[in-house]
Amino acid sequence: MQASYFETGRYYAPSNLPRQWPMPAGAYDREAGLRAFRGMVERSQYAEELGFDWVSVSEHHYSPRILTPSLPIAAAYIASQVHDIKIALLGPIVPQSNPVLLAEEMAMLDTMAEGRLIVGMLRGTTNEMMTYDLNPEESRERTDEGMELILRAWKEPEPFGWQGRHFHYRTVSVWPKPLQQPLPPIYALGTSSEASDFAARNHVGLGVSFGPFDAMGKVTAYYKDQCARWGWQPEPHQIIYRANILIAETDDKAQQALAQYPRQAVSPPGCWSSTSATSPARGGGRPMSTAPCRSISAAGRRRSSGS
Questions:
Q1: 178 exposure class (CB count in 10 Å sphere: 0-12, 13-18, 19+)
Q2: How far apart are alpha carbons 281 and 302 in whole angstroms?
Q3: pLDDT at residue 96 in the model
Q4: Largest CB tally within 10 Å, which of 116, 176, 256, 293?
């Protein structure tokens, strides 16, 4: 198994914030924002020191909970401050993005990070579609078309045109290409059957998140069935699972802390919130132990056979 630290750019508000989306911009504190981005690098460096395989970032908008509205900027900032750890975009929200620009930016990132980029492409939630006034009912179609365009832009050796339902380009010819050949590791992120269908059809990995082991196991089983239908079998590392966990010195202390953990939009100062990874194919897992009240986020992928 490989483990990924999920860096949220956690914003610690100097005072309590309401639980709402979008968060009023007037509540933003510039000094707290500066500390959030400094902390983003410090935590990523610490994750590398601890031996994590990836540090991952995810796109979100209009909220202090995950303060990374621009993934390419966040990832480039982190990549410039770490050395060997891989940089995972889990992920850009494809339906509200310019797919060609996203293909260019991620190819730049892979080159600047010397082949350390991992790409997970995301549909996003309904509220994220409202960020740029898009129709949520079109999000699935826009996601699939955008991901197909990104993959083709990376593979195609000659300029080509694209006249889809949602995206239109007279000419596409992406420079630079990703450094990794043939492509960086790529995942479609989501628990819907459509996400599994896309991943299987395009021979890419699948990333599932934040669900019970048995439910996520059913999703990955469906993905494997669809891969077989398309004539291939995914490797164990092509399935990743992200889940929330709470880190403590012992299991008992973790259970006690969980019972007291505040359910609010922004965590209290002094405690970041946490994740760790176990493959759903294993059917379960135990929380990791580390310093108390420290939250870590991880995506895991198994190396052993028989997933």
A1: buried
A2: 9
A3: 93
A4: 116
Strand 160-163 relative to strand 168-172, pairing:
antiparallel
pLDDT in tens, 143-193: 999 999 999 999 999 999 999 999 999 999 999 999 999 999 999 999 999
Name the β-bridge partners of 193. Answer: none
The answer to whether 274 and 295 have CB atoms below 8 angstroms apart is yes
One-letter amino acid at 278 equals: T
Q: Quick one: pLDDT at residue 206?
A: 97
Topology (CATH) of 4-300? TIM Barrel (3.20.20)
**Average pLDDT of span 62-81:** 93
Q: Could you give the CA distance from residue 40 to residue 81 in angstroms, rounded to a whole number?
A: 10
Q: What is the pLDDT of residue 263?
A: 55
Question: Average pLDDT of 215-241?
Answer: 96
Amino acid at 305: S
Q: Count the residues in the chain.
A: 307
